[in-house]
Amino acid sequence: MPKTLVSNAATLGEALRKRRKAMKITQEVLSLQTGISKPTIRSIEKGKETAHLGLVLQLCNDLGVTLTFETPDSVDRAGA
């Protein structure tokens, strides 16, 4: 899967929707496979900012999506 820059809930939701469609899985089938309701999947895919992080991470995992956390090289590590 190509890398996608995720800067907000909307871009993450769009990336998950594209992955689901690439796998030829409907929201209904994904709901049955994951135990996450169709309305919740729909909300996540539409970029709902108040979606539960645990459900978003479960959906990523179930779709085979890996999230990577990167920090800019210019971050002052002494201030962290």
TrEMBL record:
It comes from Cognatishimia coralii. This is Helix-turn-helix domain-containing protein. InterPro entries: Cro/C1-type_HTH, Lambda_DNA-bd_dom_sf. Residues 16-74 form the HTH cro/C1-type domain. It comes from the Bacteria.
